[in-house]
Amino acid sequence: MGRKAGKQDLTLMILVMALMIFGLVTLRSASSWNGSVRFSDSGYFFKTQLLAAVLGFAAMIAISRMDYHIFEKYAVAAYILSLILSGLVLLVGDSYNGSKRWLSVGPLSFQPAEFAKPAVILFLARMISRSKKKKKSGFWMLGVLVQVLPIVGLVGTNNLSTAVIILGIAVILVFISNPRYLPFVGLGCAGAAFLAIFLGLESYRLERLAVWRDPESYEKGFQTIQGLYAIGSGGLFGKGLGESVQKLGFVPEAQNDMIFSVICEELGFVGASALILLFLILIWKFMVISTHAPDLFGSLVAAGIMGHIAIQVILNVAVVTNTIPNTGITLPFISYGGTSVLFLLSEMGLALSIGRWQKETAGI
Which residues, if any, are the signal sequence (predicted)? Predict the structure, then answer.
């Protein structure tokens, strides 16, 4: 099957730009009070995010113009680097709000866990596409998943939510590369048992379950309750952009994990639904790119990016609506976080690069 280079995927570009603009506008509103109180600058978080977005767009354009096969050569090195950086976080990492997740280099700081996501996608895509063993075997599936457990363990030590995302990406890539579904039943049972043991090792993890079931009975349920108040008070069309009350110190760190609740309060059900629709179209676009990729490596990379975005959006919305226990997970392109935006846009560059190459019979 031949392949040919095409033009940039304008649909994907427009979707990414729409999400970033939506994110910057809502972040400016959601973070204004915290910025004024903590930095005497209501636009502090917005300016920092804007700088990261500009750098991220530059990286996205640069990567989109490259042949994505170049990244296959450095996939193993990227994975090893992610292990080293995640290990350094445990040794010399910086803490913020009680979580040690950052590494500082001079005046700059970043979260190695965000780099681990694309690194794992590239590593697994390379390994699976080059595997000569029969992918029907349950032992093969288990062997693939075992190879990402080191990074899952390192990241999960202080960032359980990101560890869940990385493991979810691995499961999705193994699932779509395997023609049999029955082995996943066994893996699912093993995963459930592992999760139960993992949660039981630390009392604070079990406490999260208790807070989730009855947030009004626990002090740590304050954030969840205030977030639900924000969602409920927004109604159908919201109070208007910039008119949130809950962002005025009631929802802690409104610019981060709980920004979706502020969006619901200010833009209402209609605005929140529009955002979710954008994400759904973006995920569908990744599926199209994966389907029409000229080789297995490109298909798996696009599918991994799709899985990353889908899992993170689902988990964030589920946490904010108290559908699942609070895991401290950000909303892609929307929540504050320079490292997250930079690597997310880099992943979009990868997807654009894959989209430039298509099967000659695809007709897209």
Answer: none
Tokens read off for 178 = 């395997």
Q: How far apart, in whole angstroms, are the C-alpha atoms of residue 363 and residue 66? A: 22
By the 8 A CB rule, do 92 and 104 touch? no
Judge residue 323's burial from the number of C-beta atoms within 10 Å of its C-beta, 0-12 exposed, 13-18 middle, 19 or more buried: exposed
Tokens of 346: 């880099």
- Residue 272 CA to residue 213 CA, distance in Å, equals 25
Contact of 364 with 288, CB cutoff 8 Å:
yes
For residues 251 and 31, give the distance between their C-alpha atoms in angstroms, rounded to a whole number.
Answer: 11
Give dist(CA 117, CA 329) in Å, integer: 14
pLDDT in tens, 147-156: 898 998 888 8
pLDDT tens digits for 37-60? 988 999 999 999 999 999 999 999
**What is the pTM assigned to this prediction?**
0.90
d(CA 327, CA 192): 17
Nearest Cα to Cα of residue 163 among 172, 154, 176, 175: 154
65 vs 171: CA distance, rounded Å: 29
Q: Is 21 in a helix, a strand, or coil?
A: helix
How far is 86 from 68, CA to CA, in rounded Å?
25
Phi, psi angles (nearest 5°) of residue 105: -125, 95
Residue 344 corresponds to which amino acid? L
* Residue 348 Cα distances to 118, 186, 251, 336, angstroms: 10, 34, 31, 18
SS3 at position 182: coil
